[in-house]
Amino acid sequence: MSYRWHNILLKSNQSILEALKVIDNAALRIALVIDDTEHLVGVVTDGDIRRHLIKGVGLDAPVEHVMNKTPVTAPKNVTRKDAVKLMESKGLLAIPLVEKGKVVGLETLNKTGSGRTYENPVFIMAGGFGTRLRPLTDNCPKPLLKVGDKPILEIVLNSFIRSGFKNFYISTHYLPEMIKDYFGDSSKWKVNITYVHEKEPLGTGGALGLLPNDVPDLPLFLINGDVLTNVDFEKVLEFHNKQKAHATMCVRDYEYQVPFGVIQGQDNKVINMQEKPVEHYFINAGIYIVSPELRRSVSKNRYIDMPSLLESSIEQEKDVVMYPVREYWLDIGRIEDYKRAQLDIINLDL
User: Fold this and answer.
1) Is 50 exceeded by the pLDDT of residue 113?
2) What is the DSSP string of 264-284?
3) Of the residues 74, 124, 187, 222, which has the fewest C-beta atoms closer than 10 A?
4) Helix (H) or strand (E) segment spanning residue 176
5) Is the backbone of residue 60 left (phi > 0), alpha (psi -120 to 50) or beta?
6) Strands 278-290 and 247-257
7) The whole model's pTM is what?
8) Shortest CA distance to 164 belongs to which of 9, 3, 285, 28?
9) Across all residues in the chain, what is the average pLDDT?
10) Element holding 156 (H helix, E strand)
11) Environment class of residue 321 by beta-carbon count within 10 Å: exposed (0-12), middle (13-18) or buried (19+)?
């Protein structure tokens, strides 16, 4: 719940100009209109104001002329998961919480409730063939396979949107038109989506070379389009910036139990025995942040995977750091993973 909802309250006789200032200062893209007893009488968004200004309504007109007098609301005790579902179904970024008609809070699609937005680009890899998921992917790109009631790619997109990101790039190769048809001009999600088509597969790193020249000159998120996770992307970005890293790789702790007794020896002498030991490794989670310098180093139509690109950076003594993912994470690479995702999504806030 946003801690700044008190700052977006207006009275119906206040001007549209005052409403614009409130919306701009709070950076939540919405203002709540109340009466003298703090009962909700309407909401107004920057979109509402733009539409009425085009029709000729002046900035000095009362905000009641442009507000939505029948807004969607939720009760005070609504769960985060139900509030998000409601907002997504209605295409809303925020929803007022009411109790007996009075405003008591605001739930936002941005899960932190901070209202912060990030210009950092987010590059989602969605061009793979999904071979291991056949026959499901025979006529559907893997990122469009549904987990619950939404495609994997839409779940990934929404996760970033909730964290305040708005500049998206999606790489396509296999059945690209299906992905473009689904997301279209991205107006439904109120973000910017640019499609980057790979005529030939270029690997997760090589696709960076196809990004347009006007990509924001900021650290860029790169994520595989088949990753299901509720990692806090804001914290990952904060970590990357604090480390001043050339690149950050998200990693996951992987535990493997050897099914046999392991013997350590020297020459022909047994020096140690472990019965079915458990080994721990860090594995690549398929989520990265790369610096503008690293992004620009990838030439157009060059095939390279991200691990190879990062290994090259390490050889050049660039700082490549790792961020351990402790939250839920699943790489949907096999039929077994896809089935597991269908069960896991029920209890995830995604």
Assistant:
1) no
2) EEETTEEEEEEESPEEEEEEE
3) 187
4) helix 176-183
5) alpha
6) antiparallel
7) 0.66
8) 28
9) 86
10) helix 152-162
11) middle
